[in-house]
Amino acid sequence: MTMKQISSVVTMPAKAADSSALTSLTEAGVAAPLSGEQMDQGRDRLLTINNPSEADKRLVTSLESYLGFPVRQISRTRFLESSVEIIVKGYEITTKDIEGLNRAIIAAQKALTPFTAQQLEEQLTAVAALVVKPSNESSQDHAMRIKATAIKLQDYPADIVKYALERVVESSTFWPSYAEIYKHIEWRVRNRNLLLDALLKKRVALTALLQ
Fold first, then answer.
1. How far apart are CA 41 and CA 20, in angstroms?
2. pLDDT tens string for the chain (211 positions)?
3. Regarding beta strands 72-79 and 84-92, do their DSSP bridges make them parallel or antiparallel, or are they unpaired?
4. How far is Cα 98 from Cα 209, in angstroms, rounded to an integer?
């Protein structure tokens, strides 16, 4: 008779988790909304730098000063026919300072601050003045087109949106589609979101150690 192999893994009853500890860990993994003043500060800084790549470099430098350790980018390189593409997979965060980590999280959130609705519509109105107006478009159609595009862009960082709009104006004769704008936004905002996500995950891990 063939004997059935018995697994060496013994299942033990799960230990009841303290509800306050679970709440604390859940909160640690969520970024609290920025205040209006903090959003204004973040937006002003992004637009003053006026260069998403430079803003990213300065952000990492600021984070490292708060954390006390280097921020390590996890990426892979893809070699194309005439260029090299670096694809960021995530970031490794090292720190033992919860207060410094909290300051770093706020800094990362500020780097994601979008335009206000009014600012965004002003940006899009400026774009409309620089491209060919669609034939037979009424003023109502024009306003609706700007409003619809603004809604799609309202959650992305101000400097990245401004950069994207500048790029499409340089390459488009007619009003650009959302896809044309978004291709200049996607990877840049993804990198900043990955950075914030890594910081929040580190706070969960550090909070668990400190409890």
1. 33
2. 444 333 333 333 334 444 455 567 778 889 899 999 999 999 999 999 999 999 999 999 999 999 999 999 998 887 777 777 788 999 999 999 999 999 999 999 999 999 999 999 999 999 999 999 878 888 898 899 999 999 999 999 999 999 999 999 999 899 999 999 999 999 999 999 999 999 999 999 999 988 7
3. antiparallel
4. 11
What is the crossing angle of helices 158-171 and 117-130, to 10°? 10
Write out the H or E segment, with its range, that includes residue 90: strand 84-92
Q: Is 175 exposed, middle or buried (0-12, 13-18, 19+ CB in 10 A)?
A: buried
pTM to 2 decimal places: 0.84
- Total residue count of the chain as it appears in this document: 211
